[in-house]
Amino acid sequence: MGTPQNPAGAGPAEAVTATASARLTVESPEAMKAFGLRLAKLLRPGDLVLLTGELGAGKTTLTRGLGEGLGVRGAVTSPTFVIARAHPSLTGGPALVHVDAYRLGGGLDEMEDLDLDVSLPESVIVVEWGDGKVEGLSDNRLHVVIERATGQTDDDVRQVALHGVGERWAGVALDG
After folding, report:
1. What one-character DSSP code corresponds to residue 132?
2. Are the C-beta atoms of residues 117 and 145 closer than 8 Å to each other?
């Protein structure tokens, strides 16, 4: 897929070089959760996942699938008002730290209070609305961009683009 420019489409950003890329179509919320289950098998401690998409695109649904696939404790719900939720592993795997940066206007400095850099080595950190805010946490990250039809529609179909950035994602098949 070449070198995506600001894969989130969230304004000006430095160019990133994707070492792995994939695009897929997700037909329903159930399929989005199932995709999260499959994607969880690729994740390991230290992974940073940035989710981008309009309200209602399926970011939290995808994260529910990730949580189930990682075998974590607690219901994965949107952390919009608490900013971040930690879900410890029930299976000896990495914890899931689910962050919603929607209401945070600043970049990494504002996120510093969450101590994400401390959690990152032993956790999988998923940040909704994180593009342009948390890239400084890791040179290795997975950008997931979810697009849906806009306007008044009942269309559940989503287009999902994945861009693995950094050595961690080199050679990883993201379309599994």
Report:
1. T
2. no
- Is residue 37 scored above 50 in pLDDT? yes
Question: What is the value of pTM for the model shown?
Answer: 0.82
Amino acid at 62: L
**Can you give the pLDDT at residue 117?**
58
CA angle (39, 81, 114) in 5-degree steps: 70
CA angle 173, 78, 65 (to 5 degrees): 35
Q: Which of 108, 101, 113, 118 is nearest to 45 (CA)?
A: 118
pLDDT of residue 124: 95
Residue with tokens 């850099």: 117
Token look-up 């098949």 returns 173
Q: Are 2 and 19 in contact (CB under 8 A)?
A: no
As beta bridge partners, residue 41 has none
Q: Which helix (H) or strand (E) holds 34?
A: helix 29-40
Task: Please name the amino acid found at residue 1.
Answer: M
Query: Which pair of structure tokens corresponds to residue 1?
Result: 């897929």
Supply 83's token pair. 């900013």
- The two structure tokens encoding residue 132: 């342009």
Helix (H, G, I), strand (E, B) or coil at 12: coil
Query: Tokens at residue 28, please?
Result: 């329903």
Helix (H) or strand (E) holding 36: helix 29-40
